[in-house]
Structures are given as C-alpha cells and as structure tokens.
Amino acid sequence: MPDLGPNRELIGRPGSRAALMTPALIVDLDALERNIARMAEYCAGRRVGLRPHAKTHKSVRIARMQVAAGALGVSVATLGEAEVMARAGIAGVLLTSPVVTPAKIDRLIALGRDADGLMVVADHPDNVDALARAAAGGRRLQVVSALDLGGNRIGAADPDAALALAKKIAGADTLEFAGVHAYAGPLQHIADYRERRRLAAAAGAKVAELRDKLVAVGLAPPMISGVGTGTHDIDTRDGPYTELQVGSYVFTDVEYNAVSLREDAPRPFDPALFVRTTVISANLEGFVTTDAGLKRFATDSVPPEITAGAPAGATYSFKGDEHGRVTFAEPGQILPLGAAIECLTPHCDPTVNLYDLYHVVRGDTLVDIWPVDARGAI
C-alpha cells in the first residue's frame, strides 16, 4: 500500500480540509466528476472519440474514471506513463512521443506483448525501421504517423512526409499503421475564440490534406488523433479529427481560465485542482509569507490565483524554493499565523508532477488520498 503521507488520519473527518498539513495538492472531487462527465457528454454529442491525455493527472484512478465515462483509452507523453497506465489495466494507450533509443524500444516491445491496444507515434523513417526490427517475432506493434502542426516539437514536417512515413509503417510486416497524430499545441492558449478558430482552420487543413492523400493510396487512417482543451470545441466543429486528446479539462487552471473555450460558454469546466498553503510568517505590513514556493507550483507562466483564505485583491508570488508571498491590496489587511490559503494552479500538468499525492475533498471533508502514480515516470 502506498504511503499516504501525514494527512492520512484525517480521511473521512468532517472539516478535515481545514486541518490539512501543507503544502497539499487538493482535488475537488465534485468538480472533477462534473468535468469528466461534461467532456464525455460533449464528445458523445459530437460523435467524436475521446482519448484524454493522462500526462495532465498521471493518475490511474482518474484514468479509470475517464474510461468509465466513455473514453477509448488514454494518451500519454512518456513510455513510463504508458507502462503505469497499461499495467493498471487501462486499454487503448496512445504514446504521443516517439520512442527512439534501443533500451526504450525494448521496453516498448515488452509492454506491447501484454498491453491491449498500445499505440506509439513515429515521425522519422529511421525510427520506423528500428521499431520494425524490434517487433520481429512478436506481436505487431501499432504505429501512428505524426504530423507537425507548427509547434516544431514532434511530427513530420509536412503532409507528404507524413504520408511517406505512413506508407513505410504499413509496408513493415511487424508493424500496423494505426492512424495519424496531429496536435496544434501553440493554439491551445490563444484567448480569443475567433482568432483561435481561424488558426485552427489552417492547421486542420493540413491534417485533412494528409487524410485525403492517405485515402487516395488505400491507407485510410483508422483514427486521426489530436486536439487539446483549448481547441476541443473548434476542432469538433471544423476539423478532420476522429478523437480528442484533451487533458487539462479535468482540472482547468489559471492559464485555461483566461481562454474562451467555447463560443457560447467560455468556461465550461470547473476549477478542480488547488494548492493549499499556510501562513508561516507575518511580521511586516503589506504581506505574509507562506510555505509553498517555487517547488510547489509550476513557474513557466502566470502566477497562482488565490481562490480562498485571503482578503479580496490579494495576490500570490514566489519568495524562494519553499516560500510564497501573499501581498495585500489594501493597507491594514492582515492574515494571522497559521491561516490557510488555497490557490488555483497556474499550469496544472507540471504542478501535479511536483507532488506525490492528491488530497481528494468533497466540500470541507478529506475523503481520500490518491497517489500521483506516474510522477516522474520516464
């Protein structure tokens, strides 16, 4: 049984949220359940598949909740995440990063012997050759041709290169062409819906071009996978995708709350992930110091947003590895030693990776503690 940490004795006690030792990563279970249900219902209504990205939550429990709500499986970013999810019985795992080194390819092939529906992306012919050699004598490996949509991260450079890659996959006796992966990462946080829709249309046109070229040579893709939380409404209206890889919708964060996610409903998902922190020093006017600093929040974008426990207008900033600061908006505002503050995470995915445990609450009660199963899994 995993170590549930110093708050384990509080599980089930009314009011236990207020008694949590901090810093603590908190999941509002009611909000999480609503978000999972809302995205599943949305995809069903649009008749598009859902393979949500588990890199957001790294949790077997949450993955199982998503599958129970109708997801086809999960997407993952690392081989380690794939191992955690598949070995927990999650079928239909799509690994969205290429696996290229011999040692990791060996792990991938070993996982594929037992994992139901395991798929991996490839974006280079040399990688396809290596995968084909490694899969010889065993179960055929399902490989997806990846197309870059301007993120300059992974993917073949253009539809013709992705087509050639698909042909190479399909021509290998030990591989199975499983479809197309195309993710427009840079579009996800464009705040304005119309501007995001305009740019998504251009990205979708590249994917549609690849699809049509594949159909023309007898390689109709079994799936076209991509789409993030920021473009889920746009790409299910206008795009060629057959399934979504949305991830952050389960929690939302400060970044996504700045994005108009749908034309008629800018914020269709509820904040569900928070960091709880405690005031540990209050000697000077205008601010207090807390116990959650750079090691407790993602620091790649905007600051955390205070959601509870501080006077109106107060802001959060970092004062070192272990320390944060709550700065007051008005003279005379104070917080006493031991006061608790909760913050919406600025960027949920990397914040989760800083913690071993989720403290799962309903209202004011800690109802469970879940491990972050795939934390640090490479």
Descriptive notes:
The protein has 378 residues and is an alpha/beta fold. It has two domains: 8-27 and 268-371, Lyase, Ornithine Decarboxylase, Chain A, domain 1 (Beta Barrel); 29-253, Alanine racemase (TIM Barrel, Alpha-Beta Barrel), CATH 3.20.20. 29% of the residues lie in helices and 21% in strands. The protein contains ten helices and 17 strands. The protein has helices at residues 29-46, 60-68, 79-87, 102-112, 125-134, 159-171, 193-216, 232-238, 254-257, 348-352; strands at residues 24-28, 49-50, 74-76, 93-95, 119-122, 141-146, 175-182, 224-226, 243-244, 273-281, 287-290, 305-308, 315-318, 324-327, 340-344, 357-362, 365-371. The strands form two sheets. Strands 1, 10, 11, 12, 13, 14, 15, 16 and 17 form a nine-stranded mixed sheet that branches. Strands 2-9-8-7-6-5-4-3 form an eight-stranded parallel sheet. α7 links the parallel β7 and β8. The radius of gyration is 22 Å and the shape is globular. 46% of the residues are buried.
